[in-house]
Write a structure and sequence with these properties.
Layout: H1 2-14, H2 21-32, H3 39-52, H4 66-71, H5 83-94, H6 97-102, H7 104-115, H8 120-139, H9 155-162, H10 164-172, H11 185-203, H12 209-230, H13 238-246, H14 248-255, H15 263-275, H16 283-299, H17 308-327, H18 342-367, H19 372-385
Helix pairs in contact: 1-2, 3-5, 5-8, 7-8, 8-11, 10-11, 11-12, 11-13, 12-14, 13-16, 14-16, 15-16, 15-17, 16-18, 17-18
Length: 396
């Protein structure tokens, strides 16, 4: 470590005006050559975590109220200390699983202190660092920095033994309530994106399938259903709604067949979004909803037949509006006061393609179900009402 620090000091003397830490780190790598290139980053990260970062994140008395703690001086936010979070993020990215456990007592205080900040920007940064740390724990291999075999580490066992899984869940779940109108939509989007990433990563660190399934089901309710039903209308907050809906597919994919327990809540919710008169003015939201609907079909297919009319209503209403807009030669947003031109027509084509893909998937699921014969009759009746639906559901 002394050699690395000597290189950093020499580099700083040669470059007195430089402020980019990445350049100093690269200089250390070059000075040691390729042989030890893998070892140096983790040693340098340990130095940063133990000596450089802790003074910038002082620990105050635990008996202070949360608001009082948040108002205490935070040196890491002072001018000139902007590098603190950059160093922390870089350090997380180069540590192995074994190193993460060793440095855990230095990693957690700054991350949790950042999440406890009053400002949404810093909360989001802290959640991003936590998500990055959990993903690093999930992806690192059983090799140390010198490429020598080590005893495999079990991050699931580590988080359970230390109690940090429950602690981190308790920290993250309340952040899902930062929603309009108390929180501006832009701030909600900034904060919730890393919160979702961290929670989904946390779900992988549970010791048994029943516990993992229960945690994922909790996320479906608290992270997807509750926020969407809290909003007076998803179309009023399209960016936030798009973000929330986009995290439903990974949750359902992790749940697999256990997703069926959420059909009665999810399908009416998704269908209502497709039926909204203003849905076509928010292309990304409607596309995210259709992708989420296909995820429901893929993972909960054994019980989809019982809910097919709910799905059909949403798809048919949306397709009718797409056809109406196309017949007028407009883009999806033009008739509703949005933009016009080739870009909007391209968005219209994208939505139509997504509807056809979803309709084809629903058709395939139902034709393979016990309701196949009834479904063929219903399709013919539907096309008899309006032939445009034949473009969504093929007749055998």
């Amino acid at each position: 470590m002394k050699d690395a620090l000597d290189v950093v000091m020499a580099w700083q003397l040669r470059n007195p005006d430089a402020t980019d830490q990445a350049e100093a780190i690269e200089a250390v790598k070059v000075s040691r050559g390729m042989k030890n290139e893998s070892e140096l980053p983790s040693r340098l990260a340990s130095h940063f975590l133990q000596l450089t970062i802790p003074p910038l994140f002082p620990q105050y008395k635990k008996n202070l109220q949360t608001l009082e703690n948040a108002r205490q001086r935070a040196p890491w936010r002072d001018a000139g200390n902007e590098h603190a979070l950059d160093l922390l993020e870089w350090s997380i990215g180069v540590l192995s699983q074994k190193d993460i456990e060793t440095q855990w007592r230095f990693l957690m205080p700054p991350i949790l202190q950042t999440i406890d900040s009053l400002e949404v920007e810093w909360k989001a940064k802290g959640c991003h660092l936590l998500a990055l740390l959990l993903q690093q724990m999930q992806h690192t291999t059983g090799q140390d920095a010198g490429l020598k075999p080590v005893m495999p580490s079990n991050p699931t066992e580590f988080l359970q033994r230390t109690g940090y899984h429950s602690l981190l869940a308790d920290v993250l779940l309340p952040l899902l309530t930062h929603l309009p109108s108390l929180t501006p939509e832009d701030d909600s989007v900034i904060l919730l994106s890393p919160v979702y990433s961290a929670l989904i990563s946390l779900a992988h660190f549970l010791p048994s399938e029943p516990r993992k399934t229960a945690f994922l089901s909790t996320l479906v309710r608290q992270a997807i259903v509750d926020p969407l039903t809290h909003l007076p209308n998803p179309c009023i907050y399209p960016s936030l709604s798009t973000l929330i809906i986009s995290y439903l597919p990974p949750l359902l994919t992790a749940l697999q067949l256990d997703a069926v327990k959420h059909l009665s809540v999810l399908l009416p919710l998704l269908s209502s979004i497709l039926q909204d008169p203003f849905t076509l003015s928010h292309t990304q939201m409607v596309v995210a909803t259709l992708v989420a609907l296909r995820s429901v079909l893929a993972n909960a297919w054994p019980r989809v037949a019982a809910h097919r009319r709910t799905i059909l209503l949403g798809l048919c209403v949306l397709w009718s509006r797409c056809v109406e807009v196309r017949q007028r030669g407009e883009g999806v947003g033009q008739a509703l006061g949005g933009g016009s031109g080739s870009g909007s027509r391209s968005e219209r084509d994208e939505v139509e393609g997504q509807v056809r893909e979803t309709g084809a998937m629903l058709d395939a699921v139902l034709r393979a179900s016990e309701e196949a014969a009834a479904w063929e009759v219903e399709k013919r009746e539907l096309v008899g009402v309006d032939k445009v639906y034949s473009q969504v559901f093929s007749l055998s």
